Amino acid sequence: MKRGDQIDYNGSPAGYTSDPQENIVYIEAHDNQTLFDIGQYHHPLDTSIDERVRAQNVGNAMVALAQGVPFFQAGQDMLRSKSMDRNSYNSGDWFNRLDFTYESNNFGVGLPPAGDNVGDWPLIGPRLADSTLTPEQVDIEFTAAVTREWLEVRDSTRLFRLETAAEVQDRVSFLNTGPGQIPGLIVMQISDPSDGVVDLDVALDGVVSLFNPTDDPIDFTVGDLAGSELELHTLLAGSIDPVVASSTFDASTGTFSIPARTVAVFVEPGPDITPPEASASLETIWATRASGMFRVGAACTDDRGAVETQVSLNGVPVANGDLALLIIQRRGNKHVATRWFHIFTADGHMHRRGGQSSYVDRRTGVPTTRPTRPSA
Q1: Residue 310: burial class (beta carbons within 10 Å; 0-12, 13-18, 19+)
Q2: Is 84 left (phi over 0), alpha (psi -120 to 50) or beta?
Q3: Each residue of 194-234: pLDDT tens digit?
Q4: Which of 31, 270, 271, 374 is deepest in the core (most CB within 10 A)?
Q5: Which listed CATH number (3.40.50.2000, 3.90.1570.10, 3.30.70.580, 2.60.40.1180) goes with 160-269?
Q6: Which of 337, 338, 340, 326 is nearest to 362 (CA)?
Q7: Statement: the pTM of the whole predicted model exceeds 0.85
């Protein structure tokens, strides 16, 4: 295995960045054909337009889920075509047109200018003339919607947006490797352990993304993941694409099942840190201007199990069902606003308790506090 900086690319190392933000990820740019057009060369001629659309979505997902800065050319989410023009900088609007009504992707509008294309005209001409290779509006709208979903998946967790080389090296690994690997399948795992390292996403313990660009469904087993709680990302479980929504994970064996030309993301939920639901209230039994009797209401529920709760009233411990007697005392220009003297428990016992008294100066309106003397 070689590192990227050990691979020669036209005299320069192929891998040279030290920070994810320096890594611009793209599968289509202004140079050469668009992704849709290059696919017209690469796919067998009998490949249906539906499968060509799925292949485009696999490519877009790779860009969206890669570490670094995703780069999408204008129209990439719309199956953009330049009618196979590989160098359209001087081809005018006829070949560079973008149709934001989604009615056309601009495929098949004519042979591209000779320039860099004339040598390929014998291949380009028959393909442009084949109406079965032209997507319809529903195909374009579908691709645009799926691309938006992938951007939402990326945005849903910090794990797809690691910020340092160390984070990438420590957290990202690839599982389908070695001589026994399944051809074509890419399996990327991003870990987020909560022990000893920074927890980047408290809602997740990890992510497994599987990219299947082949034309066959694939089952892939990771024994170490047997028994885990991996589940299909919620955005994909409710995806506009019913095929990706059919992707599954069998926890008993650690087996993923991914349909053909599909990318699926599985997430492992982290510990549930949702706080229990607590409520407290005072029910008036009777009240005058100087005093009142109130019944304490307190509840705490948690569907994860029993919860130990503590309830206090102005600093005095109370329990659900206790009765509390409030007495307001005036002292010159001050009066005690909240002073709980007697607590009657639900079982009929009375406890005389001290607590924190709150005073308000009636001339200034400034509140002050001081502890009361404990009562026997």
Answers
A1: exposed
A2: left
A3: 666 788 998 999 999 999 999 999 999 999 999 999 999 99
A4: 270
A5: 2.60.40.1180
A6: 337
A7: no
